[in-house]
Design a protein that fits this description.
133 residues; alpha/beta; Transcription Regulator spoIIAA; 5-stranded mixed β-sheet; 43% helix; 29% strand; globular
Length: 133
């Protein structure tokens, strides 16, 4: 199984939004690295995260559990975690596990970034709303 790797880039105009390009596989030998990467991003102030999983060839059930846990943690902290370009074999297992209601999938990173930042704009309070008028 290939080693796990995570490369992160934040948006130039919004440092609370990041794209994390993952590669390799997520199994018992790489799970700690995957989980640590997600914790590190949240500690760095990332509120909205796009996981590019095109190059993730395998995810075991514990890996999906960690993914779901972190999606819930992002949401609990007024953020969001979404997935882009999930490898077809991985998506098959994702679908069988019934995770679609909990984690939003996008066909491309561009669509995911657009969707996650549009969602942010819709949920941000307006000046009028925050001034009490």
């Amino acid at each position: 199984m290939p080693d796990f790797e995570a490369k992160v880039a934040t948006l130039k105009d919004n440092k609370e939004v990041a794209v994390c390009q993952l590669s390799g596989g997520i199994d018992t030998s790489t799970l700690l690295n995957f989980q640590s990467a997600l914790y590190r991003l949240r500690r760095q102030g990332i509120k909205r995260l796009v996981l590019d999983m095109e190059n993730i060839s395998y995810v075991n059930s514990t890996g999906f559990s960690v993914l779901l846990k972190h999606a819930e943690l992002f949401k609990k902290n007024a953020g969001e975690l979404v997935v882009a370009k999930m490898h077809p074999k991985v998506q098959l297992v994702f679908d069988v596990l019934g995770l679609a209601p909990y984690i939003v999938l996008f066909a491309s990173v561009e669509e995911a970034v657009a969707g996650i930042t549009v969602d942010e704009a819709l949920t941000a309070p307006t000046e009028e709303a925050s001034s009490g008028n």
